[in-house]
Specification:
Strand order of the largest sheet of chain A: 1-2-3
Oligomer: heterodimer
Number of helices of chain A: 3
Number of helices of chain B: 26
Largest interface: A-B, 39 and 49 residues
Order of helices and strands of chain B: HHHHHHHHHHHHHHHHHHHHHHHHHHEE
Helix content of chain A: 25-40%
Distance between the termini of chain A: 41 Å
Shape of chain A: globular
Helix content of chain B: over 70%
Order of helices and strands of chain A: HEEHHEEE
Radius of gyration of chain A: 15 Å
Chain lengths: ~110, ~475
């Protein structure tokens, strides 16, 4: 698709995730025809959580705030027509996100 | 054996230690977390704790060669050099060779270096000579070979090795000159003695220095981040990884050109460094240098042919560059490797659709939907294909499904309106377009819809509002089921 911005948008979307210190190991991100998709578990890199805790009180619903912030920043990328979140444990209801269930922590490898 | 001063590391060290400890508590079966904790303990001058952490890592994964290597250094630091040597000898004996090069050069290198520290440089050289000079450890191997040659009274041979090393990078040259080692000034006994005594021999520390560097970067302390990266380089002489990490710092700062320069240096240091190729390709794409981006991803795909994401990104780039046949091949290859790769599937569907391969496009879209990739846009794309083939029933069905997924996706309503218009369902068409204007900020469509309204021949009053919205005053045909 000559001139198709899907690669550029994917790159910028991944840069947004890096800026928010999203753990790339648990989330996949792609863009098809200008629509950005995020699938998996949306978590921040544990290292970032520890560094933040030294500077400010951590909000009780960090993950909800993170989803809103990431959605806002992804939607503002030039060429993005839509942002589709398929995130475990969260659901969009109207214009806000809600937690649907607590995620079980992983154990073992 | 000397340990670095902890006070220089206290902030980043504390942050990383806290994070790793918390993760290790959450994931007790993750060997790499224990290994990293061990490296931190070693760096902080706590070899006893380092031994315990590396032993925990090996208890989880006995084949973890990096942990076995690091355990040896921790044992040495804790005052058990014989146990360390025995550990390395066992690991070196067990390390497999495959694909014509030493997969586990590290453990044999540990042994060679241990012989050197014990004054058995001849034995160390015998082990070193058995190592391949390929792979990420090659400059580290060369460094140790240089030291052992110097210790064995073969300094002129060592000088040749040294010359190759310092030519590779000014950072490596600085490393040696800081210890008083200069090319052409063999045998430099005092400098060598100082180098053996003061340098950090545990090259495994490179990994934890990188983690510390990222931590400093998270604090916004770029200078300290770079210092950690230099420490990583001093530990393992992995030039390519050093420049890749420096490039990542620039990428994080939004400096794409500087990042690209670092990644290019990384590739010059190691043309087979896949991560450097991918990062450079991404930077070229960000800079609008699509052809060069494609070249880097093609090189990465040659190096790692089984990595689906590389083929996927290559496919997107080739599509952007207008190389559609190659794009289709790359996306198809990504799906051969990973048939559940939904993004690649949907991108291939889009490509097929744009090329007029409608049947293939529909097949791929349906598979993408079955894999869970669901959006109004995918249903819209399916609808457009059915519309092209004259199947308005299926097109309308797809659009209605898209509407359920996202009622506010404006293009769905626009195209529904077109279908209703073609079927002669005027009321429905106008209602759909009203919905379109409620959802969209697209004043450019107003003229087009005005034209359609004229074609419908209605006497409806269409007013385009200040925000691009439409108010429809219908002439009584409110149920939407009308006849032309």
């Amino acid at each position: 698709m000559p001139g198709s911005p899907d690669y550029a948008i994917t790159n910028r979307a991944r840069a947004v995730l890096r800026r928010h210190w999203v753990d790339a190991g648990t989330l996949t991100c792609g863009c098809v025809n200008g629509v950005v998709y995020l699938r998996g578990e949306l978590r921040q890199d544990p290292l970032y959580r520890v560094t933040r805790s030294q500077r400010a009180a951590v909000a009780a619903d960090d993950e909800l705030a993170l989803i809103h912030a990431v959605e806002r920043d992804l939607g503002s990328i030039d060429g993005v027509k839509d942002v589709i979140f398929q995130i475990e444990g969260f659901e969009r209801r109207g214009d806000h996100w809600e937690r649907t269930r607590l995620l079980r922590r992983r154990t073992g490898s | 054996m000397s340990f670095p001063k902890v006070d220089l590391l206290i902030d980043a060290y504390a942050e990383v230690f806290g994070s790793l400890s918390a993760q290790a508590a959450d994931h007790p079966g993750f060997a790499d977390l224990q290994h990293q904790l061990g490296l931190l303990y070693y760096l902080a001058g706590e070899p006893g704790n380092a031994v315990e952490a590396h032993e925990r890592a090996l208890a989880i994964n006995p084949a973890y060669t990096a942990a076995a290597s690091a355990l040896g250094y921790a044992l040495e630091g804790a005052g058990f050099p014989e146990r360390a040597l025995a550990r390395w000898q066992t690991a070196a004996g067990n390390a497999p060779r495959s694909r014509g090069r030493a997969e586990h050069a590290g453990v044999r290198l540990d042994l060679a270096m241990a012989f050197g520290r014990r004054g058995e440089s001849g034995r160390g050289l015998q082990v070193i000579e058995s190592l391949s000079d390929e792979g990420r450890h090659r400059r580290l191997i060369a460094r140790e070979r240089f030291l052992l040659l110097a210790l064995s009274g073969r300094a002129p041979e060592g000088d040749e090795v040294l010359e190759d090393l310092v030519r590779a990078s000014p950072h490596i040259r600085t490393y040696f000159t800081d210890f008083g080692v200069f090319v052409g000034e063999a045998p430099y006994p005092q400098a060598i003695a100082r180098l053996i005594k003061e340098r950090e021999s545990n090259y495994n520390l490179a990994d934890i220095h990188i983690v510390l560097g990222l931590t400093w970067a998270a604090f916004g302390e770029r200078a300290k981040a770079e210092q950690e990266l230099r420490s990583a380089l001093a530990a393992d002489f992995d030039l390519a990884t050093y420049h890749v990490q420096r490039g990542r710092l620039w990428t994080q700062a939004g400096e794409d050109q500087r990042a690209a320069e670092e990644f290019a240096v990384a590739i010059a240091a190691d043309p087979d460094h896949v991560r450097a190729r991918i990062e450079l390709g991404s930077e070229f794409a960000a800079l609008g240098r699509t052809r060069e981006a494609v070249e880097q991803f093609e090189a990465a795909a040659d190096l790692e042919p089984g990595y689906a994401d590389i083929h996927y990104q290559l496919g997107l780039l080739q599509a952007e560059a207008g190389r559609l046949d190659e794009a289709e091949q790359a996306l198809t290859r990504a799906l051969e490797i990973n048939p559940d790769f939904a993004f690649a599937r949907a991108s291939l569907a889009l490509l097929c659709s744009r090329r007029g391969h409608d049947r293939d496009a529909l097949t791929h879209y349906q598979r993408a939907l079955r894999s869970g990739l669901r959006s109004a846009d995918i249903y819209l794309s399916i609808a457009l294909i059915h519309g092209r083939r004259g199947d308005l029933v299926r097109a309308a069905e797809a659009l209605r499904r898209g509407e359920k997924v996202n009622p506010r996706y404006a293009p769905i309503h626009y195209h529904l309106g077109r279908i209703y218009q073609q079927r002669g369902q005027k009321g429905r068409a106008l209602a759909a377009w009203r919905r379109f204007f409620e959802c969209a900020d697209a004043p450019e469509f107003a003229e087009r819809i005005e034209r359609f309204r004229a074609e419908l021949g209605r006497e409806a009053m269409l007013k385009v509002g200040a925000g691009g919205g439409i108010d429809v005053d219908e002439d009584g045909d409110r149920d939407g089921v009308g006849t032309p």
